[in-house]
Amino acid sequence: MNKAYDGVEWDFLGAVMAKMGFVEVWIQLIMNCVKSVRFALVINDKPGRYFSPSRGIHQGDPISPYLFIMINEVLSLLINHACNANLIQGIRLAPSGPLLSHLLFAVYTLLFLKANE
Fold it and tell me: Which residues of the chain carry a pLDDT beneath 70?
């Protein structure tokens, strides 16, 4: 999950916020913050030309964990959907216990799936 920060598509992040019900003004403010990053490579102690990436969330930004939680929510919903469609099966810790398929915590994802030989 550490590398997942680098792979978050900005269009996907905006679509997730819209689907979650955020107003367009708020989405634009957040996306302006996300898209305003610029980088320059330093070669022989001299910075090169600046360039802007087209994806990724900077891990040092205070808002990044919240944005990443939104992305993790989509992953969680997809895992739940796969369980409900019987594409994958979680496990039960007790016969009458709830079905457990995954746990998400910070940058860790634990999957609990039924295994066959």
Answer: 1-6, 58-60
